[in-house]
Amino acid sequence: MEKQHAFKLIECPRDAMQGLEQFVPTDLKVEYLNLLLEVGFNTLDFGSFVSPKAIPQMQDTATVLSRLRLNSKTKLLAIVANQRGVEEAVKYDEITYLGFPFSVSETFQQRNTNSSIQESLSTVEQMLEVCQRNNKEAVVYLSMGFGNPYGDEWSPELLSNWAHELVERGATILSLSDTIGIAQPEQIDSLYRYLAAELPNTEIGLHLHSTPTSWKEKMEAAYLAGCRRMDGALKGFGGCPMATDKLTGNMPTELMIEYLQDKGEDLQLDLQKWQEAMLFSTKIFT
User: Fold this and answer.
1) What pLDDT digit, counting tens, does each position of 1-33 carry?
2) Residues 6+ apart with CB under 8 A from 262
């Protein structure tokens, strides 16, 4: 039986690519994703089943999926934003995880999925039922998890209340998301510990955004708080279209790998393939 990853490192090329203005040709996407699959991450957030009008970059997700060279080490995650996306994604045996961005900010939920929080809660309920019937797992992202710029209500108690609501409906994996890159290390530490204590039987991950100078303090806060499921993207590409700081992006995976190796984590990655992926990325992110 193959050894399981102790630390779940989720690589997010979908998040890195989706905001690019120029369409990345399908052949390039396929070659890049196949390289990342060979690296051996726990999970690859590879694409999304959403409206092509909303995210034109991901309109070829089904075609890309048909050309991926899958292996037993890396599971695939696809993002969905409504019931139609859920029904599309579950058709594919190759996909293990369906991810849904559930915002604790009413304004951002409307902007991101064109639905209210209550409507999105209903979508999550339906997604959980569909996943259970189709042998899939759901990952619910608590977006705007560290505050929001809209003046919408936010507090640790509000976050906890929504987390409990989701778990009561059957969610087993939550990912606390710093959508606009505002989380401070002390807040990451306190919120993660708070939720982990409140929901001891729930897998809780972190999807953080950072600048080139803030990634390490955020990484350290998350790791020392006990988080063992984190998202990143090669070179920190992508991330925060809402952020005011243009340098804010995803957590840089290559630096996360170095940090985790220094902590003695056995990530079981093929670092030669990782270097190949780093070089290949220049063909996509110019």
Assistant:
1) 344 458 999 999 999 999 898 999 999 999 999
2) none
State phi, psi for 176 to the nearest 5 degrees. -75, 120
Q: Which two tokens stand for residue 274?
A: 């990782």
Q: Dump pLDDT digits (tens) for 187-200.
A: 999 999 999 999 99
Alpha-carbon radius of gyration of the chain: 17
At residue 5, what is the residue type?
A: H
* 235-272 pLDDT, tens digit each: 999 976 555 556 689 999 999 999 999 999 999 999 99
Structure-token pair, residue 122: 């209903």
Length of the chain: 286
Q: What is the pLDDT of residue 146?
A: 96
Q: Supply the angle between the helices 185-198 and 215-224 in degrees, to the nearest 10.
A: 30
Query: Which CATH number is 8-283's, of 3.40.50.300, 3.60.21.10, 3.20.20.70, 3.40.50.620?
Result: 3.20.20.70
In the block, tokens 């059957």 appear at: 170
What count of Cα atoms within 13 Å lies in the side-chain half-sphere of residue 196? 17
Q: Name the CA dihedral angle for 212, 214, 217, 221, rounded to a multiple of 10 degrees.
A: -110
Of the pLDDT bands very low, low, confident and very high (cuts 50, 70, 90), residue 101 is very high
Cα separation, 9 vs 40, whole angstroms: 10
The secondary structure of 139-179 as a DSSP string is: EEEEETBTB-TT-----HHHHHHHHHHHHHTT--EEEEE-T
CB crowding 170-180: b at 16 or more within 10 Å, else e: ebbbbbbbbbb
* Rounded distance between C-alpha atoms, residue 77 and residue 11, angstroms: 10
**Beta pairing class for 95-103 and 75-80:** parallel
